[in-house]
Write a structure and sequence with these properties.
The protein is an alpha/beta fold and 288 residues long. Helices cover 36% and strands 15% of the residues. It has one domain: Rossmann fold, CATH 3.40.50. It has an eight-stranded mixed β-sheet.
């Protein structure tokens, strides 16, 4: 790529600073690359990207997505990462996941694929633990780090501040991330005069914890999505059919792994959460 071509591509990417959906459609070779032949973003992926777009004028965007397996969560996180860093100077970000193996064998592998297909790949270096802008002097200010979490070293997430710029926070398999990590990130997600995009994705495995509360106590702060694997074109329908034959569609396994719904009750819980929440919204009636 010539210097002039780099300048023109940089200008083109900058036009998508407030529109991740258009960025995804224009920055990857959907029609020309054999690897993407016949592929296209799923409807739910577009809805999430548009929700980010629509929330950007308010600066603080929080996305919570509970889904079944095989719906394209990891691809979507890669698109969001590349958009966030490519369209805003000195963006800082962090990606963490349920465990270190998930982070490096799945998330990084998927990010590697989409970085390779990205039209602006020459602008960024993807290392074993970070995506970094190729711009001398910006190695520490324009980057996203793949950071394993540790409840005893939560302070590693405490320094994510970027006044006047953009912060991207992605939690993958968020049901398994310790509450202390959510609590530590919260102050960074509230920085004033800073564009903050915080996305939590995962199977809804537990009916308690901070990921569950994105859809409960704190639902008013999050744009929420439930994605059923049966409604997604890329999911393994044969495997889903086997699960449907083996498990009740209203049972824990099928709800959390296919339907993208939180379990109604925990293993030590007598009254299901949905009954409790319904009772909280009813007006009390005097006993006769």
């Amino acid at each position: 790529m010539t210097h002039e071509e780099e300048i023109e591509l940089g200008k083109e990417m900058a036009q998508y600073a407030a529109d991740p959906w258009r960025f995804v459609m224009d920055m990857f070779p959907w029609d020309s690359h054999p690897e993407l032949k016949g592929a296209a973003p799923e409807k739910w992926q577009r809805e999430v990207l548009e929700a980010i777009r629509d929330g950007l004028p308010e600066e603080k965007v929080r996305i919570a997505c509970a889904s079944g397996h095989g719906v394209g969560k990891t691809a979507l996180t890669s698109w969001i990462i590349l958009w966030a860093l490519a369209t805003c100077r000195d963006t800082r970000g962090v990606l963490t996941a349920s465990n270190e193996a998930q982070l490096y064998t799945k998330n990084r592998a998927e990010l590697t694929k989409w970085h390779r297909l990205f039209r602006g790949k020459e602008f960024f270096n993807l290392t074993a633990t970070a995506l970094i802008r190729k711009d001398p002097g910006h190695e520490f200010t324009w980057r996203l780090d793949l950071l394993p979490w540790n409840p005893y070293k939560a302070e590693a997430f405490a320094g994510l501040h970027n006044a006047g710029r953009r912060i991207l926070i992605i939690f993958d398999e968020a049901s398994a991330i310790d509450p202390i990590i959510f609590e530590t990130v919260e102050p960074a997600a509230s920085d004033i005069n800073t564009q903050v995009i915080w996305c939590c994705f995962g199977n809804p495995l537990h009916n308690t914890g901070p990921f569950r509360e994105c859809f409960g106590k704190f639902a008013h702060r999050w744009k929420r999505f439930h994605v059923d694997s049966r409604d997604v074109g890329i999911s393994d329908k044969e495997q889903i059919a086997r699960w449907a034959a083996d498990y009740s569609e209203d049972g824990y396994f099928f709800c959390t792994r296919v339907r993208g719904l939180f379990p109604a009750a925990g293993s030590a819980q007598f009254i299901p959460v949905d009954l409790v929440e319904a009772a909280m919204t009813r007006e009390p009636e005097a006993a006769q």
